[in-house]
């Protein structure tokens, strides 16, 4: 007899209409859908077509209407600003979101318009997202750690009617002038943004000189609260830019209907969280984890969500996560493995966990990068709760493989993110598109259709969506990850198949960094690759070839290159090592052998590629790496 997981999983694959139609009953619809799955135009699948609803209504107003207005919706805890704390009930949230929605409407933002949100981790950032959703405007949140140039590219791509920002963000060692960064971006962008709204924070005020700058407090005070605008199920809720293989970011588009249904479903079935409980995703709203699990899913499920502005360490010590859990009775914590590694580094024996009663914590969920077994062991030993490594992506918006605690708590296998989640028919294909047997590595794909809540397309480019994700293996979504499924059906994610790296859980493109390096006047060409790092998982490193006849001091150029990546992409890229060599290793057809460089830099065995133009160049690569602190012993690993 099938167990509960198999029954649910099999039904989701064989009868998606029945499965997701049932899940959609948990959502309030203004008008019910005509079809659950619309497959008229593959690979552009649409969910709940014909339905009308509003995500903000389901995340906020619905709970007030149901009598839960006095429940806390948000707990804001900000150790980085000296310990500021605030609780916001669902009624208060409704009022503030409705007034902000009124304010942005008066600035000409209507259904279908795009709005960029460039804000630190404060409750107003969430209100901004919900206010856009409320009126059917499409938000595009840009992470604060990105530099003005990156912000300007996103402005030019989605052409917003409005930007919402704050006067500053606060990092442990400095205040970040968001307004100045925005002004920098607006100066570079071709698209002219008609208006900006700036929230003044007491850590740093911004002078609002331009007539297009509006003070957040003033315009919301003057505004009327407005109700939710009901939108079509497939109306875009948001765009979230993520890194691809080139410097041009990809705008993942998510809908109202499918997203609302899927996220609400995950709270009970995957995270095993019930309405009323406190849920904390220690991430940033600039990333997909923040969108889905700081903002939308917990609010849709009537949880209290924790908005944490700070770092896992140094606030004042590495016990701040445990303080928050204890203080607010957090049942579920979701974070990136890198955060735990940072804590573990400072508190190897978990002494700080003993200072707090953590019995309220029932589960820790980790995602964003491959989780190393040591971190899982440490967490299990010191937190005494379920520890779940789960795999997902900006593109899917929610978990693809994991241990679905709400359905069945599987025994875990270290190095695996456990089982495919209902809705995802995960398969492993070789490069010829054939399914491979268990335990064999290959391309991880998902058979179409993807479930509700996943990407609709790429903003402004259906063609790029098809090319990037759907054309490689017709009928399947290409995840960009490689891995295997073992004999017990456990999914193992091994690595990316493209030039994307994960730095402290932040997804970055090595291609974009190469473009920045090559843009320096003295650089002829560049290769950037990810190198394993004990804290951040991976960090980028570069080798450049300088133009012939460059007279400048090489060290000076390298320092300029590091600064250049920091100021064009942002400090979050953590690009700190680059070295110059006289040529890069290439195939005879001129392709840079990044894979081989990466293996050497990571101390892995490597073979002299058969297609290499001149094997002697590898000695230069090794010398270049050793100048960046890499052991020359790696040369012994040639096989
Ligand atoms: N605005 C501006 N700058 C930012 C920023 C923001 N929102 N977030 C990070 N930065 C800057 C940092 O100040 C730092 O600058 P520095 O080089 O001058 O020190 C740089 O970007 C790198 O930041 P970060 O990745 O946070 O590294 P860190 O060394 O400061 O801290 C960790 C290391 C592990 C503690 C931290 O990366 C962390 O908490 N990670 C959790 C990751 C996470 O939540 N990922 C989301 C996916 S689930
Ligand atoms: P992002 O879109 O920023 O969430 O990054 C998604 C990528 O991060 C995936 O394609 C994987 O490469 C990686 N990733 C996320 N979660 C995991 C995990 N649990 N195990 C291994 N890799 C992961």
Walk me through what this model shows.
This protein has 18 helices and 31 strands. Helix 4 packs across helix 5. 31% of the residues lie in helices and 24% in strands. It is α/β, with parallel strands linked by helices and 639 residues long. It folds into 2 domains: 4-310 and 390-483, Rossmann fold (3-Layer(aba) Sandwich); 504-627, ANL, C-terminal domain (GMP Synthetase, Chain A, domain 3, 2-Layer Sandwich). The longest helix has 17 residues, at 90-106. It starts with a helix and ends in a 12-residue tail after the last helix. The model has no long low-confidence stretch (mean pLDDT 94). Bound molecules: coenzyme A and adenosine monophosphate. Residues 242, 288, 367-370, 389-394, 417, 480-481, 493, 496, 502, 507 line the site of adenosine monophosphate.
Uncertain ranges? none
Radius of gyration: 24 Å
Q: And the CATH topology of the largest domain? A: Rossmann fold
Gross morphology is globular
Structural class: alpha/beta
**What would you give as the CATH superfamily of the largest domain?**
ANL, N-terminal domain
Task: Please bin the fraction of helical residues.
Answer: 25-40%
Give a short account of the largest sheet. Answer: 7 strands, mixed
The total count of helices amounts to: 18
Number of strands: 31
Listed once per kind, the bound small molecules are: coenzyme A, adenosine monophosphate
Cα-to-Cα separation, first versus last residue: 49 Å
Mean pLDDT: 94
Strand order of the largest sheet: 5-4-17-16-18-19-20
> How many structural domains can be distinguished in the coordinates?
2
**Percent of residues in beta strands:** 15-25%
